[in-house]
Each structure stands twice: as C-alpha cells, then as structure tokens.
Amino acid sequence: MDKLKSKLLEEKTIAVFGLGNVGGPITASWLRAGANIIGVDISKKLLSEIKKGTSHKKEPFVSKTLCDAISKKKLKLTDDGISASKNSNIKIIIVPVALKNGKTDLRNIIKVTETISKNIKKNDVVILSPSVPPGTTEKIILPILEKGSGLIGEKDFLLIYNPERIFEGRAIQDIEENYPAIIAGLGKKSTIFGKNLLNLISKKGVITLPNLASAEAEKLFEGVYRDVNIALANQLSEYCEKIGINFWETRKASNSQPFCHLHYPGTGVGGLCIPVYPKIVLESSKKVGKELELLEFSRKINDEMPIKCVNSALKILKKKSKTLKGKKIAVLGLGFRGEVTDKRLSPTYHVVKQFLKNNCIVQVHDPFILTDDELPSTVKLSSDLIKVIKNSDLIFISTDHKSYKKLNQKIIKNAKSDVIIYDGRNILDKNNFKTEKIFTVGI
Q1: Which of 53, 170, 222, 428 counts the most CB atoms within 10 A of its CB?
Q2: How many degrees, rounded to 5, is the angle at CA 277 between CA 275 and CA 280?
Q3: Distance between CA 59 and CA 79 in Å, rounded?
Q4: Cβ atoms of residues 126 and 190 within 8 Å
C-alpha cells in the first residue's frame, strides 16, 4: 500500500474545487497523505485566510495543515479554475448544493464542471463529492464533461462519485478514521481507480456500490434517517409533556436497548445536510411518481419546532406578565449546531422572527459568529454573553454550544430577578440554579 500510495501521489496532482467547510478538510487529508494539491475557490477572502493560517477555525488540524503545505510548496491556491483543471490529473468537485424555492439548485456544480471540461485531458479523473439527487453524476455531470472536452467518459477519462461523510468539528477524523469511504464509478475502470485512491486515506476501507445513482442515494439516506428520527423524538417529547412524564429520562432508558436509538428533540434542525437531504429525495421521488409521506411529514414537524418552542416559552412568560410587548429576550446561539461557525439554515432565524412577531425586543449571542447580515436590523448580535443577558425577561437557548452548559446563577445575575429560562436543547445543569425554573421540551 505504501509503495502504491507513494507512486500514485507523486505522479498525480489533485485539484480541489471548493475549499469551504468540506473542501478544506478533504484537501487537508490528501495533503497529510502526501499529495500535491491545487486548491481552487472563488472567495479571495477564504484564500487569504488559508494563507494566513486563520481559516477553518473549528476544524482540528485543517488550518495548520493547509498553511504548512503552502510553505512546503505542496499546496497552491488559486481562483482560476481553468488553469487548475489544466494542471491537474484528478479533479475533486466539492462545492455546495443549495435549495431554491424548494428545488435542488445545482448551478455551482454545473459551473465548476463546465470549467473543468474545457481543459480535461485523456486519463484524467473527475470526482464529485457533494450531496446530489440520484442520477446527477451520470445524467448531468457526464454530458457536460464530454461535450466540453470532446472525450468519452470511462474510455478517455474516469468519473467517480465519492460522497463526503463528515461531521463538522471532527472532519479529518471522520475522513481518515471513523467511516469507510463510499465510491461508485461510471464503469469498471473508474470504480477500481476510485477504490484504490480512497484506500490511501480511509483507514476503514472503501465500500463500492454498483452504480453512481446508488452511491448518490446512500449519502442522502444518511441524512433522511436522522431527520425522520429527530421528528419522532420531537413528537414523542410533545406526547410526554401532555401525559406528564419526562421524555429525557424515558429516552435514556429506551436507548439502553440496542435496537432503539431515539434522537434528541429541540428547537429545530439546521445546516445544509439534515434539512436539505429529505427535500432532495422528495423532489426526486415526485419525478417518478412515488410519494414519500413519512419524509414529508417528518420535515414538516422539524420545520415547525422553532415556532413551537418559542410559543411554549412565551406562554410561560405570559403567565407572569400582562403583555409581551417590549419584553427583552436573550437568544443564545446562532450556529445551526453547537460548536460550529456555520449558521446556514439555522433554526435561530425562525426563533428570532417569532419573538419579533410577538413584539419582543431580541438580542442574539454566539461565541463564534461575530457578524451576520440575515438577522433583522433591529436585532443585535454580540459575543458578550453578560451584555446580551442583562435585563432580559427570558433566556432562550437555541444552540447547544458547550459554553452554555456552564450557565449558572452567577452568570445570569444581571438578568431580571424573575427571569425565565427556556432550554431548547436540554443542556443546562439544573443544580446550577437555586430559584430559577428551567423549562425545556419533553418535560
């Protein structure tokens, strides 16, 4: 393996198109394996941060690996995709897929593919890694590559689908150690090469699937499973509230049985993975006339959770106050999940809107996100927790950042004396509060 690894990585240059939350760690993993990389991104700000060693702050080893590789001439950075395609043998596409008006938006991937196609050479390899609808690699990416290059897939160049499988905050560990890599090729040659290539960085080995669409579906199913299970937890938590039992204690006991794996309920599901994958599958299923009611209903449940949690908190606040107008709300957490700097599709945006809808004054705290242009202009974002909590009538925990677990009476002493705390993630230690009542979902 070491001989193969040395030969392959010495002879090939890899171009990674997209150096963001996923592309950065993928690039770092290949650099750690000894590859020569051309890193491509249209964001000059990100390229500058990589050069300075200040990028990917919440991903262990990534920033240092990228910065060190530049000084060792193992990594070249550019915003010129055409030259990167021309000067590389393996091209990895890892730009994000978005949803626009509920439909999959592949424009970023298509644009990069068109750029690559202009300078693809015989025996080059193209690897697609974003989460896409089944059929995308073969029906959309392949025709673009063939048309732009005049070459034929599998005969003249290889085409592989290799979904990224990372959890933000431990990306390199996931790529290299935690999970087997998944690959599928356009044909036998592509599959064999893809398996040999990914074996160089994946200690858990490689799982090959029989066709590209199967590998594309596999990635989506990972997120769909989690979304449906979160929806189940959200519904069961509401049921527990109605019959007067503690969901969290019941969940823990249930999960002691190895076939049960109830997820966490909470204020909502964010990011570009779990909320997006079911919608991609639903869009694809409707094209073939197959309704997936469970997925649709689960998505609806999870989309409604931010508003349900806010309304629950406001109901408690109303019991001690005649009006909600002018009540000061401290919303803790803008990241879509704890310990990340990623705020895309964060439930907190819906949380904030619902409080504003009820004429409350809202401030948002996040320890990692310092600026934001999506919050309403009347809402202040701050990294000063004491300042945000000061004089608040309600503290609402929206994101499970680790620092919030340390909240106690001393930290919240500048809030109103009868402050209400709504823990939308059930992360607080109740023993840290003597007089304040802690409310959460499922109790």
Answers
A1: 428
A2: 115
A3: 23
A4: no
Residue-wise pLDDT tens digits, 170-223: 999 999 999 999 999 999 999 999 999 999 999 999 999 999 999 999 999 999
What is the SS3 assignment for 33?
A: coil
Indicate the helix (H) or strand (E) that contains 331.
Answer: strand 328-332
Helix (H) or strand (E) holding 231: helix 212-243
Q: How far apart are CA 130 and CA 283, in angstroms?
A: 17
Per-residue pLDDT at 2: 64
Residue 327 has pLDDT above 70, yes or no: yes
- Token pair in block for residue 403: 């620092």
Taking 3-state DSSP, the helix, strand and coil percentages for the chain, each rounded to the nearest 5, stand at: 45, 15, 40
Closest by CA position to 151, among listed 113, 184, 185, 117: 117
DSSP for residue 406: G
Confidence category of residue 4, pLDDT binned at 50, 70, 90: low
> What integer pLDDT is reported at residue 322 of this predicted model?
80
Q: Helix (H) and strand (E) counts for the chain?
A: 16, 16
Instruction: Quickly count: other Cβ atoms within 10 Å of residue 413's Cβ.
Output: 12
Interatomic CA distance for residues 268 and 51, integer angstroms: 36
pTM as predicted:
0.93
Contact between 431 and 254 (Cβ < 8 Å): no
CA dihedral 316, 322, 326, 327 (to 10 degrees): -30
Length of the chain: 443
Rounded Cα distance, 215 and 366, in Å: 36
pLDDT in tens, 265-319: 999 999 999 999 999 999 999 999 999 999 999 999 999 999 999 999 999 999 9
In the chain, % of residues over pLDDT 70: 99
* Contact criterion met (CB below 8 Å) for 281 and 219: no
* Tokens 């262990």, located at residue: 60
> Which tokens sit at 402?
């680790």
CB count in 10 Å sphere of residue 136: 24
pLDDT averaged over every residue in the chain: 95
Compute CA distances 414 → 59, 378, 433, 437, whole Å: 34, 22, 14, 16
Buried b / exposed e across 149-176, counting CB within 10 Å, b at 16+? bebebeebbbbbbbbbbbebbbbbbbbb
DSSP 38: E
At residue 65, the 3 state secondary structure works out as helix
